[in-house]
Amino acid sequence: VVREATPKLLHVARSLHMDEEDLTDWSTELGAYSFHGAASWVAASGSQAAAALAAHTDMQVYYAGASAVARRLRDMDAEVPQEFIDYYDDPGDDALDELALAVTQDGLDRGDDPREALFHARRVADSLLEVWRVASAEAATGHRTPGKENR
């Protein structure tokens, strides 16, 4: 999913008149990276069911949030490139979503702890909400948290 997203995101970035320097000027706001922490944690310490349910949760929360942003921008007739709207107005991959649920169930059937799976899934959901919070705060102010110039 990520590998396929990269060229599409580069296309969106170009439509927003972003250059290579913009793409490497990373936010220093810790919340911008909360998903990375949650995903790393489940990868390092989670069971099969935990990892699969975290992946399912990621897809549910991310795609719902992205689609909501795209719809809101469209409804407001916001001056946003169509490439941005098209990229984020994506319902996700139903087959991948179903696979994540099947792998979750397989892990549970093999004895994985359902509480652990829910714990990690909630951390992933919370982390994605934090990423959206940071992105929306930076967009609302028109100012990104300073990036590489302050590293």
State the distance separating the first and last CA atoms. 30 Å
Averaged pLDDT, please?
89
Radius of gyration in whole Å, from Cα?
Answer: 17 Å
| Residue fraction in strands | under 5%
Q: How many discrete structural domains?
A: 1
- The helix content is over 70%
Can you describe what's shown?
The protein has one domain (2-145). Helix content is 72%, strand content 0%. The chain has helices spanning 2-15, 20-23, 34-45, 48-75, 82-88, 94-109, 114-141. Helix 1 packs antiparallel against helix 5, helix 4 (48-75) packs antiparallel against helix 5 and helix 4 runs antiparallel to helix 6. The chain is elongated. 21% of the residues are buried. The mean pLDDT is 89.
List the helices and strands and how they pair.
Elements: H1 2-15, H2 20-23, H3 34-45, H4 48-75, H5 82-88, H6 94-109, H7 114-141
Helix pairs in contact: 1-5, 3-7, 4-5, 4-6, 4-7
Summarize the structure.
Helix content is 72%, strand content 0%. The chain has 151 residues and is mainly α.
